[in-house]
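Hi everyone,

Forwarding the result from last night's run.
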Amino acid sequence: MNTLPERADTRRPPTRRYYGYVLIGYSFAICFLASSFFLHARGVFFPHWMADFAVSKTELSLAVSLTLFTGSCCAPITGYLIDRFPLRVIITIASAWLCTGYLLMQGVSSYLMLLLVLIPFQGAGWTGVGPLVHTKLMVNWFNRNRGTALGAALMGLSVAGVVVPPLNAWLAETYGWRSAYLAFAAILVGVAIPLTLLLVRQKPADIGQWPDGDSTPPPPPATPPAANQGVVATYREFLSSKAFWSVVLTFGLMNGVYSAMITHLPTYLSTELNFSIYDGAYLLTIAGGFAIGGKIVMGWMMDHFPAKLTVMTGVVAYLCSTLCLIFVASYPMLMVAAALFGLGFGGMVPVRSVIISRLFGAEKFSRVNGLLSFFLAPATFWVLFTGYIADTSGTYVTAFQVWSVAFLLAGLVSLVVRLPDR
């Protein structure tokens, strides 16, 4: 009888500013920076790499795909570490690892050296600074408003897509892509690492607060999780879950195509349509801008509408975008295609995170998220597949046709599988 008043005394005062909003801003900033260095750089660096190393689209696409594949294979390990160790430690170590790789880029003079630096440093380091850690942070700090918080935090990925491609194109043309990576390393050391050490807190309870800024703790789950579940038992639970495989099927066909688009679109415009690299970079900016809206709108939809409706919205945007790429070649319609592609990609990032957090809870979130990334790893070869098709068929349009089939199948799968609404 005496424990309730004592517990109430430790709750945060209602007038105190909720620290979770600070962490949304932090995650936004780090996602912005981290995605600027590879996600929104490789597309505009791609033609420069082809020229410097005298390689084909297929060979360079292999380097990008292997880098992404390495990250997907590292994701289960990173996910396990995220659920077991402080996030600030993981993000700091990963940032230092990325910084080392970017410094080594200064000495890259051949295709083989590019592979040896890009794959282990960028591939593994991204998992410790990208969405995997920031989705965990938002899941810890938000419950009722989780979809909205995830959409706002991960919006940094898309804002970078608006601002950074033209800037990276200018850096590559003016100072060279190696100098750009030197600047990236300086930003990690001077900005990302200090912000992480200063701001990151693991969960609301660490500073006497409750999720969503509430003045009372959230209600306990209807089915309490098993205590002290072993590592093997935890992963067996994931792998034996029909819900887990439903998510794999739903997102497997869509995952990775956006990476192929942002990697190859500037090259497509400059080699087949007689536009410039800057024109391609501006299309990536448009895609990034609409990805911002996708994260906000679909994150909000996940909090208020059925999950299946939200997923289908993203699938339709993807499919319509690809049809535009297939049938038209005017710059205004390419802008429409880029906008729809960004809308679909931006929305799917928070949607996937909300779905798996609903299925398995916050405590196991990063482990199941990492495992999901592992099973989605084959989709990273969309970059390679797209480059190979363009080389063998002589046009990227054939690759776009294959993309449209994949999106159509993703829509059919989304209609069949069961997705959690709460």
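DSSP finds 19 helices and no strands in the chain.

Cheers,
N.
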